């Protein structure tokens, strides 16, 4: 199974944090990264997002580019301060490849937790992990695409 981890695009300032929207630059960064990896993302069977607006908008851009017809599912374990182990417990490995749209520091923590690779994910960064079963240290980090 592949897990694609996408950090939302650059967002504007604002309060409350949950309602911050993507800037034009953020939308363009997400589009650039997803378009450049579109052939790799063809296996995506499910898309999940945090409930924060900027992540929802990021997931919607991915769905549009991939012509994804499924539902974008909100996952409460994709917030900025979520715990990787709690998110991993929500993955159904029998249902195909998954793309998640989330935030820092969660995205870098998740990739490190699964692959033992220490990486930084700037806005609009996309990572591909692969594993038979997603457990700590069992995933292979196949690639990282930055805008």
Your description of this structure?
This protein is an alpha/beta fold and 147 residues long. The chain is 29% helix and 22% strand. The protein has helices at residues 24-36, 53-66, 84-88, 106-115, and strands at 2-7, 44-49, 72-74, 97-102, 126-130, 140-145. The protein is globular. The mean pLDDT is 96.
What descriptive keywords fit this protein?
single chain, alpha/beta, 4 helices
What's the N-to-C terminus distance? 25 Å
Q: Uncertain regions: pLDDT < 50 for 5+ in a row?
A: none
- Estimate percent helicity: 25-40%
What string gives the helices and strands in order?
Answer: EHEHEHEHEE
Structural class: alpha/beta
Per-chain topology:
Blueprint: E1 2-7, H1 24-36, E2 44-49, H2 53-66, E3 72-74, H3 84-88, E4 97-102, H4 106-115, E5 126-130, E6 140-145
Parallel strand pairs: 1-4, 2-3, 2-4
Antiparallel strand pairs: 1-5, 5-6
Helix pairs in contact: 1-2
Briefly say what this structure is.
The protein is α/β, with parallel strands linked by helices and 147 residues long.
